[in-house]
Design a protein that fits this description.
By secondary structure, the chain is α/β, with parallel strands linked by helices. It has four domains: 3-147, no CATH class; 157-211 and 370-476, Rossmann fold; 215-361; 542-561 and 574-695 and 713-803, no CATH class. It contains 28 helices and 23 strands. Strands 13, 14, 15, 16, 17, 18 and 21 form a seven-stranded mixed beta sheet that branches. It has a six-stranded parallel beta sheet with strand order 9-8-10-11-7-12. The longest helix has 24 residues, at 579-602. The chain is elongated. Keywords: ATP-binding, DNA damage, DNA repair, DNA-binding, Helicase, Hydrolase, Nucleotide-binding. It comes from Erysipelothrix larvae. One of its GO terms (molecular function) is DNA binding. Residues 510-694 form the PD-(D/E)XK endonuclease-like domain.
Amino acid sequence: MRKTYIVPASNVRSFQHDLVKNNDVLMGVQVLPFEACCLESPLTSKQIEIHCFEAIQNNSFSLLELSLKSPSLIKDLINFRIDMKCYDLDLSCLPQTTQREKELYHAFSIIEPYIPSLSLPPGTIYYSLEGLSHAQIAFLSKSNALPLSPSQKSPSKLEAFEALNFRQELEGAMQYILSHHFDNAVIALFNYESVIPYVESCFQRYGVNVSYQNRLFDIVKHQMLAFIKQYTSQDLASTLALIESGALGLKKSYKLLRYIHHYKLHLNQLVEPFNYALDTKMSIVRDIIDLQKEIQDDAQILRDYLLEIQEMSLNDFIVYALNRLSELHPFDTKPLLRYVQEVYPFITRDSLPVVIKHIQALKDNPKQSLSIQVVDVNAIPSQIDGPLIILGLSSKAYPNLSSLSGVLDESYVKQIKGFPTLEARNKFNLELKRSIFRKADHLVLSFPHATYEGKALEGAYDAEVLLSQYNIKPKPWSIQEALNGLKPSLKLDPMLARALYERDGKIVGSVSSLELYVQDPLQHFIKHGLRLQEPPSYKLDERLFGTLNHSYFERSLNGKNTNLWDDYASYLPLDDATLSLIREINDEVLQFHHDNLSQAIQTTSFKPTYFETRFENESFFEGFEFNGVIDRIDVADDHLLIVDYKSSNHVLQSNEILLGHQLQLLTYALMARLRYNMPIQGVFYYSLNKNTITQNGPSYSKTKGISSSNPVTIQDLQKAHSYKGWFFDEPDDRFTQADFYTGLMLRKKDDAFYIFGKPYDIEKVKVYFVALYDYLKQQLLNGELDVNKFNLPLFDNYSFKQGGDEDES
């Protein structure tokens, strides 16, 4: 005799296992979900949705036109109509009073030919009272199907725990299962999809590598949707999104994207050769030339793809995209392939929104055979060996009953004669929810006190009532935490540090890299130990303008050609509306600084003599070989004046130098003094930005009353753009004006120039730097990576001024 068991789709497999376990398996016995058993149609459910969606779109509506373009609403209409059939209600029961109700009636009339009919297979029919909907049970009970006796049981053992939040609950449950050595256990979760990543990470901490989601298939879905979006949109944004998704199988897609973004290419330019960066010897342009060479293979793949799909029909393109994805992911496209085979004849541009929705909803969750089952609270197995642990029992998660909303809301449903009331449906659903407390002999309930954001949560009422019946109060989960409260010190093995940083017994690099080590040792290790560099930034930023402006002043003060924009032409975007404005503003700033520097040069006997002076493998400090470039060295009367151009305002500060944060300029001065065997007059920064001068308003005092402010003068502007640094020697007669150098003053009584306060002492700088570099060498080679372990400054109350003056202002 034929037997059919109708159970929720999520419980089909567990119910089959129960039948096998109880030896209740005979020929003709089948376990089916309601949809597979009772709905009769030549079309599958997804095909029905496509047909209904297209049929709706071919009709006109006024109030609901936009709403009915949503595939989700069409699916709701189909499911609602099936529920009506379960209740024995036809279309005549629908209200038709308002315009909205009339349009809904019209929509239901359109999809009616595609709605499956309801029937039962021959033989004895049994159905589960748990997990099926109110409408499904109403139909089965009227059709003389037999209800299965529910596995109602009061738990013989009940325990209750509480935790601060869900993650603590999960940790406590895991340790509880392991410490009690249960052979089998079931963990039931609310909001299963959103919390399952926490479960996976928790399992991994205990040595269980398990995945409840096939993330490779999620990538496949994302790439298929990117293909469809690019084909239908045919615009630059969707093409870039396709490249980014990895669907084309490009080896250096991120570099290709950087190139396209840099040159601001249009869609039609993507099918042309990528040869916009012309060969040049300029170092800053070399980066993008090298990039251009690297991306040629990927650029050809992109061109071939864009040209190949131009004449393809939508259906041909779907097959083409599937084939490309199958080559990339041979074992992870099966669910997608099965879906396309199911709906392929019905795919059109009109039905594409439904197809996209279906692809987004596809899942390929791997099957698990662990002794610890993790399930949704709505899919708890019918028979459980071991404890059932229900986590997250808050009033927010349970019972979580909701009324109908949207187009098919309760106010609409209330007007349908014969449709169950909200009270009846909620009563049914509440009883269904309560059944989770009668699923196991050993029941463990867990209550969170707060969300991750710290918002308080109240316990689920039914669960608290159950505990009161057993006279049980929740107790905290017993969680054994790892004793790692103290952060371990970051440190490399000294042998490894020497292997990374030393070459022939010396530390080779730039002074700026050592400054980075003092400020962020870990970042220094990444960049200069592991030699991992961030990808170069190919854009119009301070890096480009700093390099360009440095070159400009090197050439202009040396009498060379200063038309640098032509040299950088291959670096610049092809079509940038702001480029001409940027060039104009930058040229204006350069001209201002050129005039300002020219005037400054006229006020001193120091003349620019050396430009872009390179130091390579300089061993001025023991154990180091430094490489670097001094922007400008001026010479007068056998004295040197060191100038370093900066794109932003820089000021030498004693406290920063003592801490090792400003080493470059003074280190270059010491090396220049040794190379040229000349004393250092001073070291200075010159900022290449343009500062603004604010006109102060009138001021008031009790003694003077209101007094007007002095107008801004050219001297004020010069002071705002002066050389900022230190003097190491008296000016003597080497200067004729004091406005261009900080610290240089004019004594009115004898018209002599002097240094405000006292000059700095280059020998004191050398003494401190020798000690500092030796200390940093020891720290670096010992592998120290914790900035808090640096004992800086080395000397207390150390002054760089001549004569021991401690005033460093």
